[in-house]
Amino acid sequence: MGVQETGGYDVTFTSIAREGTGANARLVVHTMEEGPGPNCMVTMALSNPQVTVKIPKQNKTIGLDQTNETSVRDCGTVQNFCATKECGPNQVCDEFQDACVEEPFCPKVKCANGYVCDEDVDACVGRPCEPSDPNSCPADFVCDNQIACITQPCPSEFRCEPTPAPVTCAEIGWVGVCEGTVLKYCSSNSSDDMTTLDCAPGSCEFSQANQYFDCVQ
């Protein structure tokens, strides 16, 4: 079972049997691992559940087939709570919490290309991407940092976002703008004056010191 973060875990042998004869003989072992449910009181220390069994001595080396089952201990105050509980719309019964909880959102939706489902916000959000990899986002998407930089080094959470509409020099001026790893800025209001730089393998970020967008390596 290995080392666990807390106590409350247990492992048992449910059956051990020798099957077959001669060269085809196998030792078939079934084990059951049990872990604590969310309402269980456990020791807050590492644990390493182990069990030892004694079996008849085998006359020769024998093959081993092991199957393992897992279960979660129900420490709720009401046993079989869900058997008699009727939950409201968009709710499911959680036996381990003895309560009706909100039905998971993501199994009910299919996100479009470039998006992944986020259960925390009940929505499809841009999938994680790597700014140095031009293929980490689908066509018509850019890999954009979702965190506005106010400290250095800049924290990052790059996700695919739809490519924004073309910007004009009247909109961005000398301050510029980042489109994924691409930096755009102008020295005048003329669209012909726009400079475009790909900051990859670095990133495009806002410089607090200079008060404009710039490439950061």
In a nutshell, what does this entry contain?
The chain is an all-beta fold and 217 residues long.
Terminal Cα separation, in Å?
45 Å
SS-derived structural category: mainly beta
Number of helices: 1
Largest sheet, if any?
3 strands, mixed
Widest sheet: strand ordering: 1-2-3
- Which ranges are low-confidence, i.e. pLDDT below 50, for 5 or more consecutive residues? none
| Order of helix and strand elements from N to C terminus | EEEEEEEEEHEEEEE
Please describe what this structure looks like.
Helices cover 2% and strands 36% of the residues. By secondary structure, the protein is mostly beta strands. Strands 1-2-3 form a 3-stranded mixed beta sheet, with no helix packed on it. A 3-stranded antiparallel beta sheet has the order 10-11-12, with no helix packed on it. Strands 4-5 form a two-stranded antiparallel ribbon.
Helix and strand layout, with pairings?
Blueprint: E1 10-19, E2 26-36, E3 63-73, E4 91-94, E5 99-102, E6 115-118, E7 123-126, E8 141-145, E9 158-162, H1 169-172, E10 177-179, E11 182-185, E12 195-198, E13 203-207, E14 212-216
Parallel strand pairs: 2-3
Antiparallel strand pairs: 1-2, 4-5, 6-7, 8-9, 10-11, 11-12, 13-14
Write a concise keyword list for the protein shown above.
217 residues; mainly beta; three-stranded mixed sheet; three-stranded antiparallel sheet; 14 strands; 36% strand; elongated
